[in-house]
Write a structure and sequence with these properties.
This protein is α/β, with parallel strands linked by helices. The chain has 11 helices and 17 strands. β13, α8 and β14 form a beta-alpha-beta unit. The protein is globular and about 60 Å long.
Length: 334
């Protein structure tokens, strides 16, 4: 039987667990897991911060693997294909959102690590629609984080038809932000990194930032008033969002992909008088993920990773939890 690394209770150490896969659904694929990124959402689920974790819990939703079996009705994949799986392991395929290509907004979408075993395992089974082909030539151990962190910052670029002439600010240069800098630079935008870590400034420039603003310096942020077309926040902490709103041009957009848990303190007049927009978005649809992979491959966009063997998964989780990751942690069997 295959092995998974499972937690028996909230916050528990992960231990090896044998499990049975069960029969393969006719519209599903079975995948041998080669690599799996660790996302902060895995930590949140491990600690049951969102109140929806079931135990034993097996995380992992940035999966790269090889198809080893296909369901009887699957024609899109074959044994041996290299594929990736992100936050969603399946969709209803019948709701208006699914029918319109917005499967990521399906209210019945199945989370890869919600009520099922994710990629901290040797083998997973998912809906064939959730397994996205990986373009030839991509560095496999670095691809997994694109299926969560990458698509999270790339999806709004597609959804809002971001102009390559846009002036864009990225708040937070971490697991999400370091990918946003690369995508936006390759898109053609003028990119500014908002970071509270001076030591990240030079690295941010190498990743694609044209300018740097100290996110702890309110005067420096205020000096950019009316400058940006689009600001994307990747952080999960409370900031003075009115400063960032003021930094937008009329009709500019402040967009959230970082899950800050505190309510937003927004000056409505800043929205009304300049017709600004505040918005948010989740991960992307299968079609959007495929476009992102093609774009990343064409422009040599790559996740900065630290690799751990699966056997050191608890060490890898601790490394992430302590904020030491630069910038994504990946488990690997290869």
């Amino acid at each position: 039987m295959p092995i998974a690394y499972a937690a028996s209770a909230a916050g528990a150490t992960l231990e090896a667990l044998e499990y049975e896969l069960g029969p393969l659904d006719e519209t599903a694929v079975e995948i041998d897991v080669l690599h799996c990124g660790i996302c902060h959402s895995d930590l949140s689920m491990l600690n049951n911060e969102w109140g929806m974790t079931t135990f034993p819990f097996v995380g992992g939703h940035e999966v790269v693997g090889r198809v080893r079996a296909v369901g009887s009705r699957v024609s899109t994949h074959k044994v041996g294909d290299l594929v990736g799986v992100g936050w969603h392991a399946g969709y209803c395929h019948s709701c208006p959102q699914c029918q319109e290509g917005d499967q990521n907004l399906c209210s019945q979408a199945q989370g890869t690590i919600v009520g099922r075993f994710g990629g901290f395992a040797e083998v997973i089974q998912v809906d064939a629609a959730s397994a996205i082909a990986i373009p030839e030539g991509m560095k496999l151990e670095a691809v997994g984080p694109l299926f969560c962190g990458g698509i999270t910052v790339f999806n709004p670029m597609l959804q809002f038809h971001l102009s390559p002439l846009s002036k864009v600010g990225v708040v937070g240069i971490g697991g999400l932000g370091h990918l946003a800098l690369q995508f936006l630079n390759a898109w053609g935008c003028e990119v500014t990194a908002f970071t509270s870590s001076p030591e990240k400034a030079e690295e941010a420039r190498k990743l694609g930032a044209h300018k740097i603003i100290n996110s702890k310096d309110n005067e420096e942020i205020s000096s950019a008033a009316g400058y940006f077309d689009y600001i994307i926040s990747t952080v999960n902490v409370k900031l003075d969002w009115n400063l960032y709103l003021a930094a937008l041009k009329p009709k500019g957009r402040l967009h959230f992909v970082g899950a800050t848990l505190e309510p937003l303190d927004i000056n409505v007049f800043s929205l009304i008088t300049a017709q600004r927009v505040v918005s948010g978005s989740p991960v992307g649809s299968p079609g959007s993920i495929a476009k992102m992979l093609e774009f990343a491959n064409r422009h040599n966009i790559e996740t900065m990773i630290e690799v751990f063997p699966f056997e050191k998964i608890n060490e890898a989780l601790k490394h992430l939890e302590e904020g030491k990751a630069r910038y994504r942690v990946v488990l690997s069997r290869a």
